[in-house]
Structures are given as structure tokens and as C-alpha cells.
């Protein structure tokens, strides 16, 4: 299970898309989409975080994975052109970002660190970053940290890709 979780986290970071088209909202990096997914159930992936990056050009939506109560793993391209970490809001227990369900926890980023070899081109690798939030998230049945593997996955292991994508072609 730990192997699958690690692979899922990686896939989720690389292949995320917003669930709906929003005015003046973009997803960092490629516009490739995964089509034919399934809606997750509320609380099914309690380590999946929702990131809203506020910029002059509009909001950028991304996802991330809760590593600890204060640290989130995400893609470095999500932080492109962000100067002030406080322009990033991380939301835990998010299900439908258009409709508040009442269980969400919003946190402000106080520190962001991209991989030192990331050069702005997600095709060249190192597209990974860590965010620190304050205050810490309150862990519960809807907000938990991901269980990371201590070994590499076996070839051919299936994974689930997480994100706010579409279940049909738009």
C-alpha cells in the first residue's frame, strides 16, 4: 500500500487539472488532461490538498499532498512567478471548490522551496516543491498525512491519479 501511495502522489502532482473551467484561472504547466476519471467521494483521499495561488494574472489552481501537519508536497511549476508565499492558500478537506461543505481548513503558506535543479521547464524534471503552512492543519478523518513508501514500486504497479480533473471531455 505504501508503494502505491507514493506512486499515486507523484502521478497526482504531475498530472493535475482543475475540475471546471473558471474565468481567469490556469493550471501551471501543460494543458494535457486525463479524461474518463471518476468522481472521488468526500474524504476518500484525505491527504489531497487544494492550492489556490493568487496572482495579478488570475488564480492558479493546483494540488498537493499533505506530508505532515505543516508540510505539503506539490509541483514546482505551480509556484511559477510567485514572489510572496502568502499568496498561496492551501485547503484541506476540499471536495467541491465551488461549494463550501463546512469541513475545509484553509492555511497560508509561510515558506516555499522548489527543487534547486528545477529550471521552470516541467518537461526537464525536478518539478517538485515543498510548502510550509501556518498554523498546522488539524488532523482528523478528513485530513490525514500521506503514508509514504520506503521502497521503490514494482514494475507494472497500478496507481490512482488525484486532482480536480474532468470525468468527460470538454
From TrEMBL:
Alphabetized UniProt keyword annotations: Disulfide bond, Signal
What InterPro entries does the record tag this protein with? Peptidase_S1_PA (IPR009003), Peptidase_S1_PA_chymotrypsin (IPR043504), Peptidase_S1A (IPR001314), Trypsin_dom (IPR001254), TRYPSIN_HIS (IPR018114)
Cited PROSITE patterns:
TRYPSIN_DOM, TRYPSIN_HIS
Q: Give the superkingdom in one word.
A: Eukaryota
Identify the stretch annotated as signal peptide in this record. 1-21
Instruction: Check the record and name the SUPFAM superfamilies matching this protein.
Output: Trypsin-like serine proteases (SSF50494)
One GO MF term: serine-type endopeptidase activity
User: Which SMART domains does its entry note?
Assistant: Tryp_SPc
User: How is this protein named in the record?
Assistant: Peptidase S1 domain-containing protein
Q: Which organism is it from?
A: Meganyctiphanes norvegica (Northern krill)
Amino acid at each position: 500500500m505504501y508503494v502505491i501511495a507514493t506512486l499515486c502522489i507523484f502521478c497526482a502532482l504531475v498530472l493535475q487539472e482543475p475540475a471546471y473551467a473558471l474565468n481567469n484561472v490556469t493550471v501551471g504547466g501543460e494543458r494535457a488532461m486525463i479524461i474518463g476519471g471518476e468522481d472521488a467521494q468526500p474524504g476518500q483521499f484525505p491527504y489531497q490538498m487544494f492550492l489556490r495561488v493568487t496572482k495579478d494574472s488570475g488564480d492558479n489552481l493546483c494540488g498537493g499532498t499533505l506530508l505532515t501537519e505543516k508540510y505539503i508536497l506539490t509541483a514546482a511549476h505551480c509556484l511559477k512567478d510567485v514572489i510572496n508565499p502568502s499568496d498561496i492558500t492551501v485547503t484541506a478537506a476540499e471536495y467541491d471548490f465551488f461549494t463550501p461543505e463546512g469541513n475545509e481548513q484553509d492555511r497560508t503558506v509561510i515558506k516555499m522551496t522548489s527543487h534547486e535543479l528545477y529550471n521552470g521547464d516541467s518537461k526537464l524534471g525536478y518539478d517538485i516543491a515543498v510548502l510550509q503552512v501556518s498554523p498546522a492543519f488539524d488532523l482528523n478523518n478528513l485530513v490525514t498525512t500521506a503514508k509514504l513508501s520506503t521502497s521503490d514500486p514494482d514494475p507494472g504497479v497500478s496507481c490512482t491519479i488525484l486532482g480536480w480533473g474532468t470525468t468527460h471531455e470538454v
